[in-house]
Design goal:
mainly alpha
Amino acid sequence: MISQAEYLKVLRPLLPELAFKPNSQKLFILAINLLILVLGWTIARDLDRWSIEWLWLYLPLSLVMGNSIIICLFAAHDAMHGSTIKQPMSRYLVSFLALALLWMPPTLWKSVHNHKHHTETNAIGDPDRMYLVGQNDTWGKWIQNLFVPSSGVNWAFLALGMATSWVVHTFRHITSILIFNRDDVDYVPAPVVVSPRKRQAIAIELVAIGVVHLSILAFLKFNPLAIGLGYILPLGIGYAGVMFYIYTNHFLCPMTDVNDPLVNSVSLKMPKIFDLLHFNFSYHTEHHLFPSINSDYYPVVQELLQTHYPESYNLIPVVEAWQLLMQTPRHYRDEITLTDSLDRESVICPCAVICPETKVFANDAKSAFAD
């Protein structure tokens, strides 16, 4: 395996300097989608006046609003990596506004995502990895087993999980930090411990986010119909879209001690319309190599990877990636072996087979385990 730093030595000189300059135009896209949400809530205020046979006409707007929720996360994601705004206070305010709709305090996101996930991707200390089968049977692990796409998941629970797993993910880390803030918390895949100052900031931000959501509900006049179609449904659609990307980013990959983005991350072949809408988030290996790059240049990075590292690069059609998730279990037995919660299955991580360099390691490990 090759470390991220070694890839950068080869690839960084081949990229134009413009790729590393902030692209503030994406803030305009964020503003448009925030206006879409406000428009949707404004229309939803009067849904109780609609005849019941016409309520279905609001559903396409719910879908568009759900997409706006996805864009809010990805806009905040890029901002917090410094690819759209360099000024810290402006970056913080934009990130808070966008992440508030996902119940994600920006200080928590920075601690979990920027500081831990990106530096220990799919390693034992990655808070976003799958659970080890040998970890304690906690409520967090139970929910993953019940809701996450796998060979054993129930379709009804999967549908519920797609809409709610983002909330579970956020709730796990918020409670782990605010209640305990220790490195022995076992209901998260890997605990994150923060300083007292950051812990206080997370608590304050969470209260502020609660005020934002309460204000939205008050704007909707606490009307159950307006809340259902204009608030809960768009959030559920948005959270499902976000989780779809998150599941395919790393859940097909082996665990790694060396942070090798070509081994522990997956890029997807997506319809171009989704790449356009979602800031090229499907280019996830590229993002892990260059987190702060302007995402418009991810296709350029992809071309370089296909030229310089064609045998190691995981690029999978989106439908195939989902099928692989649904055909494999979701717990790690060891670095390259997946199993179910009862440790009955034994499946090599699909991307350990796709990547020839890792395939040798995977086969050796499997033989050693069999012995």
